[in-house]
Amino acid sequence: MKIHFVELPISTCDGQFTARYSEKGLAELNFPPVGRASPRAANSRRRGNESEISSANGLVKDSSRRLLQNTIRAWHRATETALKNILAGRKPKNLPPLDLAGTEFQKSVWRALRKISFGKTKSYGEIAELIGKPKAVRAVGGACGANPVPVLVPCHRVLAANKKLGGFSGGLDWKRSLLAREGIKI
DNA sequence: TCCGTATTGAACT
DNA sequence: AGTTCAATACGGA
User: Fold this and answer.
1) A61 falls in which pLDDT band (50, 70, 90)?
2) What is the pLDDT of residue A99?
């Protein structure tokens, strides 16, 4: 059975983000396309491009599909609010359910990221400790880079051990900016 | 199996 | 204060 995604835009003063939902929750959040030169959003990768709102053969499924769409609309409102809050430098209160596709290792890293509270930071090494694999520091970096839902899953709060910036899949400017909005000085 | 990585800490200039 | 380097776990091809 094929998995369907619903793709919805979020307009902010920082540009148009794109959210993608599975039937389980928010699966992906993409940064606004950077320049006109770049055809791809900074964060879009893996996972096919199929994003269809309707399921193929329907009849019986029609009402449950409507139900799902209403659910997704509610999730989207939560995503929108949370994103705009964080962009405005305010702690988001509600997140939509997340449906993050990845290996067990990656999911454990992303779980750890979510425990970093607003306005705080941790190092790649500390995340490695938290998930019980103190030596997997570089792999943690890899998992951060594979985070499908940046900003809401706060990979930008992970710095290198020397409190220097490290990297960011959406571009270091975004990382600096997000940290600044949370009042974090580097 | 081989290669790259959003690391790290030590040992060097 | 900057540079090099090896150790390192994981994921993708």
Assistant:
1) confident
2) 97
A15-21 and A6-12 as β-strands: parallel, antiparallel, unpaired? antiparallel
Give the 3-state DSSP-derived string for A23-89, with helices as H, strands as E and coil as C. CCCEEEEECCCCCCCCCCCCCCCCCCCCCCCCCCCCHHHHHHHHHHHHHHHHHHHHHHHHHHHHHCC
Greater confidence (A40 vs A124) lies with: A124
User: What average pLDDT does chain A have?
Assistant: 88
Are A55 and A76 in contact, with CB atoms under 8 Å apart?
no
- In this structure, is the CB of residue A164 within 7 Å of any atom belonging to strand C? no
Report helix, strand or coil for A133.
coil
In Å, what is the CA distance from A144 to each residue of A68, A167, A182? Answer: 30, 9, 19
Q: Please tell me whether residue A173 adopts helix, strand or coil conformation.
A: helix
Separation between Cα atoms, residue A75 and residue A91, nearest integer Å: 18
Q: Can you name the residues that pair with A26 across neighbouring β-strands?
A: A21, A98
Chain B bases closer than 7 A to any CB of the protein: 4-9
Looking at the predicted structure, is the pLDDT value of residue A46 above 80? no
pLDDT of res. A35: 67
Nearest CA to the C1' of C7 belongs to which residue?
A135
CA distance A34 to A47: 21
